């Protein structure tokens, strides 16, 4: 609520004359000057609709973002201006403030000094002091003491911009106790420590063995793999029907290794401003590199890595290009110790470039569980509950086409019924086989049949490259 009569009058005038661009721009500038940042942002957005290419409006919106610490949004707003030769020096200073807020000291210093060299009047003493500290040593002088080195990592985590760490001492054994998570400006995903391991994943022995060989052993036995020129790191694409346990498997892989785990959601990457999504993706990879060994997990990766031939807008194709560039790394060792796991229910929608060697070139099918795997899943789901004598094999036989998520639904439903009985009896009543059988009758498998029908179409009619030969035995079975 504005408590300034002059601003209230200006806002009312803008409301009565919504297409008056000078009035709306003046109102936005007054709001910004008096610290009403949210209201100023809204007015600048409205003005930008009337004049999409107005440099003053874009700069005002960017300043509102910077003062609200929304540095990524500010850089996205300034990007069209910075791409034009001879942009106003004030814009360069604004970009420097945003870049410094994102932790990019080098680029911030370049933008600031370039702007001030063209117009000294735009100089900002406070910003200049922040950019020059700590001072950079010159040749022939004694350098200041180096900042303390981070805890030693088997891979030597990269130092933040503007700092130089002493090289970490190479480990004498496979010591994979990762240091405390290192934050990265611009990354919204969080570093976790998974408490799961492969013992918590029922069945899927072939899939676990594949992950062990492709991802875990190069880190657990680095000397042996180095003898063959194999580096730790790489990418695997997990695909299969919904609910089959792809996310659970990724967490277990991180726990098996004792590595950091970064679970990347779409909200951590996608942004409404052009250029911000690519910046978020770069920051997420940098977060994984600073916390290696690390399992970087992208769920529903087809939303970030869709086929570029299906896209109509250039900025969505640019996100795919950025993803490919991050997978390659700036040099051959950039992603060493970073294990990229991606999961999708629709692998045929992922751009074919991701299957190039060195990227997500190792697709692993996560199948629906067979009867033995379903029994093992049920045992895990029921292990912390009061139980009578159980025949999990009998329940597994009547839950054909159920995936792990469906089986969890069966157990949850049986527990709800048993809780009601226990409340009435005043004591815990153990779960029994008939309870699970009764719950299984009331739960229908979710999406395996539909997924297999879709997979059959691709395997039988769009598989000239042989990419989906692994699915042939499954789609030919009766589903």
Brief account:
The protein has 479 residues and is of the alpha/beta class.
Characterise this structure:
The chain has 479 residues and is an alpha/beta fold. It has three domains: 5-132, Tetratricopeptide repeat domain (Serine Threonine Protein Phosphatase 5, Tetratricopeptide repeat, Alpha Horseshoe); 191-365, Rossmann fold (3-Layer(aba) Sandwich), CATH 3.40.50; 371-441, Orthogonal Bundle (Helicase, Ruva Protein, domain 3), CATH 1.10.8.60. Helix content is 49%, strand content 6%. It contains 20 helices and six strands. It has helices at residues 5-16, 21-33, 37-50, 55-67, 71-82, 89-101, 105-118, 125-132, 205-220, 222-227, 246-257, 266-269, 276-290, 314-328, 371-382, 392-397, 404-425, 433-441, 448-461, 472-475, and strands spanning 191-193, 234-239, 260-264, 294-298, 338-344, 362-365. A six-stranded mixed beta sheet has the order 1-3-4-5-2-6, with helices on both faces. Strand 4, helix 14 and strand 5 (338-344) form a beta-alpha-beta unit. Helix 4 packs parallel to helix 6 and helix 17 packs across helix 18 (433-441). The radius of gyration is 28 Å and the shape is globular. Mean pLDDT is 79; it is low at 134-179.
The portion of residues forming beta strands comes to: 5-15%
**Highest CATH level, the class of the largest domain:** Alpha Beta
User: What number is the mean pLDDT?
Assistant: 79
Q: How many β-strands, per DSSP?
A: 6
Number of helices: 20
Helical fraction: 40-55%
Write down the Rg.
28 Å
Strand sequence of the main sheet, in spatial order? Answer: 1-3-4-5-2-6
Task: Domain count, please report it.
Answer: 3
What is the CATH superfamily label of the largest domain? Answer: P-loop containing nucleotide triphosphate hydrolases
Structural class: alpha/beta
CATH topology name of the largest domain, in short, is Rossmann fold
Query: Uncertain regions: pLDDT < 50 for 5+ in a row?
Result: 134-179
Distance between the termini: 61 Å
């Amino acid at each position: 609520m504005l408590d300034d009569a002059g601003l209230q009058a200006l806002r009312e005038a803008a409301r009565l004359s919504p297409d008056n661009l000078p009035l709306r721009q003046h109102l936005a500038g007054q709001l910004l000057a008096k610290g009403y940042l949210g209201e100023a942002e809204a007015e600048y957005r409205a003005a930008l609709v009337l004049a999409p290419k107005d440099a003053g409006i874009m700069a005002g919106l960017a300043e509102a973002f910077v003062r609200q610490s929304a540095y990524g949004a500010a850089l996205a707003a300034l990007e069209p201006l910075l791409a034009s030769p001879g942009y106003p020096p004030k814009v360069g200073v604004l970009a420097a403030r945003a870049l410094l807020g994102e932790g990019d000291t080098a680029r911030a210093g370049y933008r600031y000094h370039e702007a001030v060299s063209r117009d000294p009047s735009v100089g900002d003493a406070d910003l200049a002091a922040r950019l020059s500290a700590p001072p950079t040593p010159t040749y022939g002088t004694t350098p200041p003491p180096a900042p303390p080195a981070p805890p030693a990592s088997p891979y030597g985590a990269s130092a933040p911009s503007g700092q130089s760490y002493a090289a970490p001492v190479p480990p004498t054994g496979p010591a994979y106790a990762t240091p405390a998570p290192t934050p990265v400006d611009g990354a919204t995903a969080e570093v976790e420590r998974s408490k799961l391991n492969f013992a918590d994943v029922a069945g899927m022995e072939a899939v676990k063995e594949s992950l062990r060989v492709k991802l875990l052993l190069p880190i657990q036995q680095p000397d042996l793999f180095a003898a063959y020129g194999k580096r730790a790191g790489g990418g695997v694409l997990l695909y299969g029907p919904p609910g089959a346990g792809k996310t659970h498997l990724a967490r277990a892989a991180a726990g098996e290794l004792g590595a950091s785990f970064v679970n990347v959601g779409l909200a951590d990457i996608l942004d409404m401003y052009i250029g911000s999504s690519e910046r978020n993706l770069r920051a997420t990879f940098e977060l994984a590199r600073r916390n290696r060994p690390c399992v970087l997990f992208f769920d529903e990766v087809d939303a970030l890595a869709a086929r570029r031939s299906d896209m109509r807008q250039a900025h969505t194709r640019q996100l795919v290009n950025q993803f490919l560039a991050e997978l390659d790394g700036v040099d051959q060792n950039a992603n060493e110790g970073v294990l990229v796991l991606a999961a999708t229910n629709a692998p045929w929608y992922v751009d074919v470039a991701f299957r190039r060697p060195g990227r997500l070139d190792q697709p692993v099918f996560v199948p629906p569980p067979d009867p033995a795997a379903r029994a093992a899943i049920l045992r895990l789901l029921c292990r912390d509950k009061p139980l009578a004598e159980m025949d999990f094999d009998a329940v597994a036989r009547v839950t054909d086409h159920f995936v792990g998520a469906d089986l969890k639904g069966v157990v949850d439903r049986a527990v709800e019924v048993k809780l009601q009985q226990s409340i009435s009896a005043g004591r815990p009543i153990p779960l029994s086989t008939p309870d699970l059988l009764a719950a299984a009758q009331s739960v229908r498998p979710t999406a395996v049949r539909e997924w297999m029908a879709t997979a059959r179409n691709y395997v039988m009619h769009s598989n000239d490259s042989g990419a989906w030969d692994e699915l042939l035995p499954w789609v030919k079975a009766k589903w």
